[in-house]
Write a structure and sequence with these properties.
The protein is an all-alpha fold and 241 residues long. The chain is built from 13 helices and no strands.
């Protein structure tokens, strides 16, 4: 497991909480058919929803998922699920540092297709929910300054980027911030992390579930801070010379 994978998984499972099984009947992820009141109330553990665990069991021919199976889910299996069905499925190993964590955690929380489409919309790729060659090319060509001039960033997103660059975190999209972004190799990754925060938060708000929006908003902000920290962390190859 590479360092970014470890960091991304630790962040996600840290956000999901302890080993307690969630049986909230208002959460569609706790139901076997993925809709409130539809199927069996199986629950969620380590953030692994009932439909995701069912899909994993079907894929690996492991049998039927029951509430007892969910209750006995281990961290090792949860690691395998997030690695296969989210991290690898969304091509996170080929995304820039920080962007990988952001896309992975949002996909785990909101669905792969949703997370990848937001990335594609920001990068200017066709929003088909598949993070393939064309999407990676668009991500590689992304310009934070060009995007910022055209669309802007929220104050919260800019403050996180400015803090990561050692600037005064005033949330102002001014020449000093733009120059600092252009001067760092991580400039495009930081811009993508900022834009993803804005898009992911807007997506949460659009769902319209007041019961969950406070927790989602807090997770979105924590995700932004973790992503920009990872984006600006030197890689082993950069520190070995």
């Amino acid at each position: 497991m590479i360092d970014n994978e470890k960091t991304a998984f630790a962040f996600t499972f840290g956000q999901e909480g302890d080993e307690t099984v969630s049986l909230d009947p208002d959460d569609k992820g706790n139901w076997s058919l993925g809709e409130v009141g539809q199927g069996t109330l199986i629950g969620t553990k380590f953030g692994v929803s009932a439909p995701v665990l069912i899909s994993w069991y079907q894929q690996n021919r492991l049998g039927t998922v029951t509430p007892s199976v969910m209750a006995n889910l281990t961290q090792d299996v949860a690691d395998a699920i997030i690695g296969t069905k989210f991290w690898n499925a969304m091509n996170c190993p080929n995304l820039p540092s920080g962007v990988d964590l952001s896309v992975n955690d949002h996909g785990f929380n909101a669905g792969n297709g949703v997370s990848v489409r937001l990335l594609q919309q920001i990068a200017g790729a066709a929003a088909d929910g598949n993070c393939g060659r064309l999407t990676l090319a668009a991500v590689g060509a992304f310009s934070t300054v060009t995007y910022g001039q055209a669309h802007g960033f929220s104050r919260t997103a800019l403050e996180a980027v400015q803090a990561a660059l050692g600037l005064e975190a005033d949330g102002y999209w001014g020449p000093l911030t733009q120059a600092a972004i252009m001067a760092t190799p991580q400039g495009s990754a930081l811009g993508l992390c900022a834009a993803l925060y804005d898009a992911q938060l807007a997506d949460y708000v659009s769902i319209g579930l007041p019961k969950y929006i406070h927790g989602w908003s807090n997770r979105c902000l924590a995700r932004l801070k973790a992503a920009v920290a990872l984006a600006t962390t030197p890689t082993p190859s950069a520190t070995s010379n």
